[in-house]
Amino acid sequence: MPFCIYTYTNIWLSGHQVDVEIDANKALPGIEIIGLPDASIKESKERIRATFRNCGIQLPARKIVLNLAPSHIKKIGTRFDLPLAVAILVLVREPTWSLKELMETSLFFGELWLDGSVKKVYGILPSVISAYQKGRRNFFVPEENIPELQYIPHINLYSISSFTDVVAIFDSWGMTDLFHIPQKKLQNIASHNDTRFADIQGQLVAKRALTIAAAWMHNVLMVGPPGSGKTMLAKSLSSVLPPLTFEQTLAVSQIYSVLWNLSKNTPLIRQRPFRVVHHTASKVSIIGWGRNLTPWEVSLAHHWILFFDELPEFPREVLEVLRQPLEDKKIVISRASWSVEYPANFMFVAAMNPCQCWFYKDKQRNCVCSINEIKRYQSKISWPLLDRFDLMIEIPRENIDIIMSNTQEDDYDYIKNTRDAREIQKNRYEGTPYSTNATISSKVLRKLIVLDADAEVFLKEVVKRTALSPRVAHKIIKLWRTIADLQKKKTVEKSHIAEALQFRKKSLFLDT
């Protein structure tokens, strides 16, 4: 009767159990691997032969058939080497009932080298998390993969550095204790950022606006002449964001795991840097790569910041592909053979000059552009994309006296206000599918966000006077709620509305 060894594969972030079935018959000796394997898996038969030979184990003189079930899922990569070899070892050395019970509840991962050593496999984190969510608890993994897995709670990790470790477990059931790895607890780390609000002299209005944005991931567009501090303000924004939670750390790290971006020194992604995209980037590099459906910038910025500098310099088609992930907080990449979904809940921060000569509406220098030139430059950004910005703020050049002053500002208030507002939102949305003001749906907007009587009247007047689209109106209401949270108010007041409208300066743009 065929015996099974279990492992997991993932199609990017989607995990699937793979049963390694083994059978042997008296036909011409050899190893046959079936079940839709790729070329690297077909080559594993030679790695297995060399491993058994160098570990002093003789393969049985039979035809060995190994099936990777289910057969409709394409199997890719060298992670199947170890489970395939363990399945053959079952034929050679009959395990005890206790060991057989452990193996039936365990998953095996690892690439074999010719000398029998078991090496790191990539993209293992999504597989282990997916298997854990489906009830699996025992994992035999390469020693090099331990750092990224030992923070996952309630699992049993067994470190395998060589195939001889597996042989030793077969020979002595009690030796599994030697390979068991104790769990670690993820410690909070201080956010490190080379640029902070305290390093920027002046720009108090901009700092206030960015604090509101950081209070929960509102998208921001900064408009101003070169040298006004737009890029520095964007870089300093991550200094006021709280550390990633454990759940966010795992969510982000899974994306980096499948892209082979985790290492021994960086087993998990803990910091909140921001992704900077150059204006020469293609839409494929923003959304995801071609035939293999690889995730890219919008997913790498998940729970982080995606920063576009010189926004009008980006091709129009590149900017337009952002509209769907900005609205849905996810990206779906479809091809004829497959379709995958990646998370893309990022904060979009962009900066731009107001015109080609840089000085439209500047108080210190006159603009030399004609009205048509300004319109042509600004029309590179479509109104539907502008509607997806919650805040549009003007960043003027500061007076030289302010820039050269020795006044030292503390980041404490910005950081405390941001984190207090996030805690308020966390408590408000507990028990609902939502966690932030920015992500709440319009369907339950009025149920969860309360306006006082004056604010209600003022809102209707603003909508009538400015002819706001429903999307913009909903975004502004969410922004009002965030401003109220920063002031620890239970209801949205008229003053919150007035401040929010100051951060929606479409007057920076000419009508197109």
Topology:
Elements: E1 3-11, E2 14-25, E3 30-34, H1 39-42, H2 44-54, E4 63-69, H3 81-92, H4 97-104, E5 106-108, E6 111-112, E7 118-119, H5 124-133, E8 138-142, H6 146-149, E9 156-160, H7 163-171, H8 176-179, E10 180-181, H9 204-215, E11 220-223, H10 230-237, H11 246-258, E12 274-277, H12 283-287, E13 288-289, E14 294-295, H13 297-300, E15 305-308, H14 316-320, H15 323-328, E16 330-334, E17 339-343, E18 347-352, H16 371-378, H17 383-386, E19 391-394, H18 400-403, H19 412-428, H20 445-448, H21 453-466, H22 470-486, H23 494-502
Parallel strand pairs: 3-4, 5-8, 8-9, 11-18, 11-19, 12-15, 15-18
Antiparallel strand pairs: 1-2, 2-4, 6-7, 9-10, 13-14, 16-17
Task: Spell out the key features of this protein.
single chain, 512 residues, alpha/beta, Ribosomal Protein S5, domain 2, Rossmann fold, 2 domains, five-stranded parallel beta sheet, 19 strands, elongated
Q: What's a concise summary of this model?
A:
With 512 residues, the chain is an alpha/beta fold.
How would you characterize the overall build of this protein?
The chain has two domains: 3-181, Ribosomal Protein S5, domain 2 (2-Layer Sandwich); 197-508, P-loop containing nucleotide triphosphate hydrolases (Rossmann fold, 3-Layer(aba) Sandwich). Helices cover 38% and strands 17% of the residues. The protein has 23 helices and 19 strands. Helix 6 links the parallel strand 8 (138-142) and strand 9 (156-160). It is elongated and about 90 Å long. The termini are far apart. The mean pLDDT is 85.
